[in-house]
Amino acid sequence: MKQTYLTGITTTGTPHLGNYVGAVRPAIEASRDTDNTSFYFLADYHALIKCHDPALVSQSRLEIAATWLAMGLDTDRAYFYRQSDIPEIPELTWILTCMTAKGLMNRAHAYKAVVQENLDSGDSDPDKGITMGLYAYPILMAADILMFNASKVPVGKDQVQHLEMARDIAQRFNHHYGELFVLPEAVIEDDVAVLSGLDGRKMSKSYNNTIPLFVPEKKLRKLIMKIKTNSLEPGEPKDPENNTLMEIYSAYANEAQVAAMRQAYADGIAWGEAKQIVFEHLNAVLAEPRERYDALMAQPEKIEHVLQQGAARAREHCVPFMAQIRKAVGLS
Ligand code: TRP
Q1: What is the DSSP letter of 166?
Q2: CATH number of 3-194+300-329
Q3: Where are the domains of the chain?
C-alpha cells in the first residue's frame, strides 16, 4: 500500500553531523522510494515556541532548507515546504484545538517537565515560563500531520507521545464529524546512528557540543581535534567501542574504511593521527555538498523560490481538504 511519510524539523539551530545521519540522510533516502509520498517541512511555527530571537529563527530556516537541498533532496518528488507558508495549518490547528481535551494536553511530557522543574526549584508558580504555545504544541503538530493524512511519521523517541496525541485528536474528530482523518503512526528508526558530540554526550544544540555540517575546512579540522578522547599514548591499543571519534567516522565511512580504522585502533594509532584521518575523510565527503550549500546561502532567493513552489504544491492537497473539513464542522 502506498504510504504518506511526513516529518517536520524545528528551525531553531544549525544542522550538525548528528542531524544529518539521524534525520536528513534517512529521510532523503526514503524519499527516493517511488512507492511512497514524502512531505518534509520546516516547522517554523514550532520554532517560535522555543526561540524568541527573530534573527536566529530566520537564519535557521535558511540553513536547514539549504542543508536538505545541498544534500540532494529531490524537491520535484518530495514535498518540501515551510509550515508558515501554509495558512491552512493554523486554521486546522484551531479547529482541532476545539476538539482536544485539555486533560490530554495536561499529560504532555514536554509541558510536564517544565512544571516539574518549576516545582523542584521551589517556584510558587508551577506554570512559570510556560506559554500557551508550549502547552498546545501537540495540537499544532497534529495539524501538521492530519492536514496531509500522513500515515507514517518518522520521529525520535521523544516525539512518540505527540503522535499518540495526534491519533487521539483525529479519532475524536472522526467520531464526531465523520471519518476525515487517517490515524498516523510513528516510525522510530532504530538503526540510524545517534552521534555523540565533542564532549562525549549526545550531539545536541542544547549541550553546545555539535560539529556543524558545513563549516569551512579549517574550522572542521579544529572541531574534530577537539573531540574528547582519553590519555592512552601512541602504541597503546584503543577501544573502538563507546568512542565518539569512531562513532562519527563510522556514520560517514564505508565498511572497509571502518574495519581499517578498527584495526588501527587495535594497533595503537595515536589519537592525533586518528583524528587527522577522520578529518580528511569528512572533509572529502562534505566538500561537494558544502559548495552547493555555500552557493545556496549566498543566494537565499533561490531557496525561497524552491520553498514557495513546495508550498504551492502542498496546498494543492490542503486547500480542497480544508474545504471538506470546514464543511464537516459547519463553516462552509
Ligand atoms: N516536534 C517535532 C520535533 O521537535 C518537529 C515537528 C513539528 C514534527 N511538526 C511535526 C515532526 C510533524 C513530525 C511531524 O522534533
Answers
A1: H
A2: 3.40.50.620
A3: 3-194+300-329, 214-295
CB atoms within 10 A of CB 196: 23
CB 152 within 8 A of CB 168: no
10 Cβ below 6 A of ligand 1: yes
Q: How far is CA 40 from the centre of its chain?
A: 10
pLDDT of 19-58, one tens digit each?
999 999 999 999 999 999 999 999 999 999 999 999 999 9
The pLDDT value recorded for residue 194 is: 86
Q: Hey, what CATH topology would domain 214-295 get? A: Tyrosyl-Transfer RNA Synthetase (1.10.240)
Residue nearest to atom 6 of ligand 1 (CA): 8
For the stretch 265-279, pLDDT in tens is 999 999 999 999 999
Distance from C-alpha of 315 to C-alpha of 307, rounded to nearest angstrom: 12
pLDDT in tens, 57-85: 999 999 999 999 999 999 999 999 999 99
Testing ligand 1's pocket by substitution, the residue of 96, 137, 144 carrying the most ligand atoms inside 8 A of its CB is 144
Check if the beta carbon of residue 71 is closer than 8 Å to that of residue 25.
yes
- pLDDT band (50, 70, 90) for residue 191: confident
Which tens digits make up the pLDDT trace of 291-301? 999 999 999 99
Give the position, in ligand 1's atom list, of the atom nearest the Cα of 46.
7
145 close to ligand 1 (CB < 6 Angstrom) = yes
141 in contact with ligand 1, CB cutoff 6 A: yes
Distance in Å, CA 291 to ligand 1 centroid: 29
Quickly tell me which residue has 500531520 as its cell: 145
pTM above 0.70, yes or no: yes
Q: Which three cell numbers stand for residue 204?
A: 545536541
Q: Is residue 108 within 6 Å of ligand 1 at its C-beta? A: no
